Amino acid sequence: DGLAVQVQRTGRDSTAKALHLMSQPGCDLERYKTFVGKLVKKGENGRTDMQREYVHKLAQSKIVVTHNPNFYEGDSRTFEALASGALVLLNRLVDPPPTLVAGDNVVFY
Predict the structure, then answer these.
(1) Integer Cα distance of 59 and 12 in angstroms
(2) C-alpha span between 91 and 15 (Å, rounded)
(3) pLDDT tens per residue across span 34-72
(4) How far apart are alpha carbons 44 and 6 in whole angstroms?
(5) What is the pLDDT of residue 1?
(6) How far is CA 58 from CA 8, 65, 71, 85, in A?
(7) How far apart are CA 16 and CA 21, in angstroms?
(8) 2 falls in which pLDDT band (50, 70, 90)?
(9) Which CA distances in Å does 106 have to 6, 38, 40, 80?
């Protein structure tokens, strides 16, 4: 039902799978409250409407790991995560916007 369960061959799904596995009992992130997955249910439109659960999770987050879609240099989730005030971990971009400063408002992986 989440990204970590539906394994595909994209970087985004690999990132989600790794985070999901690390948050399982006996692993590195076990003692932390983590969420890995999608907050918009299948068939719901999350691009044009505000999703309350998504906004709530962002507001609670201290660290947000996001991975841009393949062949995109930044997306709305990147900038929503930055606006939340959380530390943002983002996959490396070829030509990041000048507003993304490594070590200042984003950490690239």
Answers:
(1) 22
(2) 9
(3) 777 766 666 666 666 677 888 888 899 888 888 887 777
(4) 18
(5) 37
(6) 25, 11, 25, 9
(7) 9
(8) very low
(9) 27, 22, 25, 13
In whole angstroms, what is the distance from residue 14 CA to residue 19 CA?
9
For the record, the structure tokens of 75 come out as 């997306």
Reduced DSSP (H G I as helix, E B as strand, rest coil) percent helix, strand, coil of the chain, to 5: 30, 10, 60
Cβ atoms of 91 and 11 within 8 Å: the answer is: yes
In 3D space, the residue among 46, 38, 31 whose CA is nearest the CA of residue 16 turns out to be 38
In this structure, what token pair is assigned to residue 8? Answer: 């595909």
Task: State the pairing for strand pair 63-66/87-90.
Answer: parallel
What distance in Å separates the CA atoms of residue 7 and residue 43, rounded to the nearest whole number? 19
Q: For residue 107, what are the CA distances in angstroms to 14, 73, 79, 80, 97?
A: 18, 15, 13, 15, 14
> Residue 84 has which token pair?
């939340």
AA identity, residue 23? S
